[in-house]
Amino acid sequence: MSSVLASPLRPTAAAIQYFSWSYPEWWSVALCWFAWAVMVLHGWRYAAHGIHHRMSFEQELPYWMWMVAAMMLPLALDALRVTAARSLWGRRHRAIAGFLAGYFAPWLILGISAAALREASWTHTYAAAALGFVAAALRQRTPMHRRAVIACHRTHPLAPLGWRADLDCLRFGGMIGGACVRSCWPMMVACVFTGHSLIAMVGGMAVGAVERWPLRPRTRAMLVGTLALASYYGLVAILEYVLAFALHNQPAP
């Protein structure tokens, strides 16, 4: 014991190891912060183009996945902790990696469709974004949405060792990811229509938080937040149309 305390490095290493074991989801949180940094840089880089900026399918799909990581990973932290807690100490990080692989798979499938849809010119308008948030608000009032939110809190038994443990983590992640897709896909597609706007992303994540974190979803707050986003982009669409109409009808000098 005295030799351990005498070394200044061993207590530090022990503290790091203890933190890693106690909070094995730490690198998932770091991944979330990195994803936000990528999206902030993306928003700053294309701020002059805004919603009308066009990217190829190969460019759009990676940004979709970064957006999912930034907005959805915080909402999946409870499931990540459950995955780690039900796994043996030595394979906790491996279990989390398997969960994330399964979790992102349904989002990747939806992202392929969203990136392909983004190739259409009408998706680069404020009106499309506003209608997307209206659709998200309407879906929040349906039984399908309520069932999807409940499914986001389901659990799955995990085998302790071997390929069955890896498969169970993958299945658990896919189950939670699929439920998240069913509950949030209109909101996420609307965020894509905004050109990955930080306003839409922060607002959408806030709506997801009041939907997922409380014991009972705060349906009124969800609806108000989603309609606020729809109103914002609807107002901008109207102003853009009025400005374009005024410039078009301005007499030539």
Task: Give a written overview of the molecule.
The protein has 253 residues and is mainly alpha-helical. It has one domain. The chain has 11 helices and no strands. It has helices at residues 2-6, 9-22, 26-45, 57-72, 77-85, 92-117, 126-139, 143-151, 162-193, 198-212, 219-248. α3 (26-45) packs across α4 and α6 (92-117) runs parallel beside α9. It is elongated and about 75 Å long. The N and C termini lie far apart (89 Å). Residues 1-7 have low confidence and may be disordered.
Short description:
The chain is 75% helix and 0% strand. It is mainly alpha-helical and 253 residues long. α4 (57-72) crosses α6, α7 (126-139) packs antiparallel against α11 (219-248) and α10 runs antiparallel to α11.
Number of domains: 1
What percent of residues are in strands?
A: under 5%
* Helix-and-strand structural type: mainly alpha
Mean pLDDT: 84
Helix content: over 70%
Q: How do the helices and strands follow one another from N- to C-terminus?
A: HHHHHHHHHHH
Report the uncertain regions. 1-7
Q: How many helices does DSSP assign?
A: 11
**Through-space gap between termini:** 89 Å
- The Rg value, from CA coordinates, equals 22 Å
How many runs of DSSP E, i.e. beta strands?
A: 0
Observed structural traits:
single chain; 253 residues; mainly alpha; 0% strand; disordered N terminus
Write the layout of secondary structure elements.
Blueprint: H1 2-6, H2 9-22, H3 26-45, H4 57-72, H5 77-85, H6 92-117, H7 126-139, H8 143-151, H9 162-193, H10 198-212, H11 219-248
